Amino acid sequence: MHTEAKAYGWSEESETALLAKLKSDLKQAMRDHDDLRKNTIRQIISEFPKLTVPITLESGKKSTRLKTGEEITNDDILGIISGLVKSEKTTLELQGKASSPYLEVLHTYLPQPAGAEEIEAWIAANIDFSQFKTPLQAMGPIMKHFGKKADGNLVKQLLAQKAA
Questions:
Q1: What is the 3-class SS of the chain, one letter each residue?
Q2: Domain end: 79, 107, 135, which one?
Q3: Does the predicted TM-score (pTM) go above 0.90?
Q4: Are both 102 and 128 inside the same structural domain?
Q5: How far apart are CA 147 and CA 139, in angstroms?
Q6: Residue 164 confidence (pLDDT)
Q7: Where on the phi/psi map is residue 132: left (φ > 0), alpha (ψ -120 to 50), or beta?
Q8: Residues 122 and 101 in one domain
């Protein structure tokens, strides 16, 4: 049984939670002897101890505990993956490289970023610039709508063009 590469990865449209998809992809990668994907998914999962919930102990001290599998949200995992992508890009920059197989695998689990056209269309339909002193002040509502899907630098560029 040969699995297509498309079987790996995740999108927001899929019904599956990202955590469940990572676990199933890890099993599949092990079956396929795909070391790159297996190691990448293990790297993502190894970051989970960073996901904590604040608690107050009986003594009144503030502390944290690890999130359980049920408490880990898609946004938590996307935050971890985004952090890994950012550090990999920094490493590649220092090495003078554009991309790496590791980075490509990480991108398969991130939502497709919103393109300039999509952002401009949403701005045209939803933002009234008369409410703001400068177009850049509209950045907040735009980023709130798009969340991690929009690149802040791209939004800033688009707003700067409106200001000009």
A1: CCCCHHHCCCCCCCCCCHHHHHHHHHHHHHHHCCHHHHHHHHHHHHCHHHCEEEEECCCCCEEEEECCCCCCCHHHHHHHHHHHHHHHHHHHHHHCCCCCHHHHHHHCCCCCCCCHHHHHHHHHHHCCHHHCCCHHHHHHHHHHHHHHHCCHHHHHHHHHHHHC
A2: 107
A3: no
A4: no
A5: 11
A6: 62
A7: beta
A8: no
DSSP 54: E
Q: Residue 77: name the closest of 16, 156, 35, 138 by CA.
A: 16
77-129 pLDDT per residue, tens: 988 998 999 999 999 999 999 899 999 999 899 887 778 888 888 888 888 88
Q: Identify the domain boundary among 87, 107, 127.
A: 107
Range of the domain at 83: 5-107
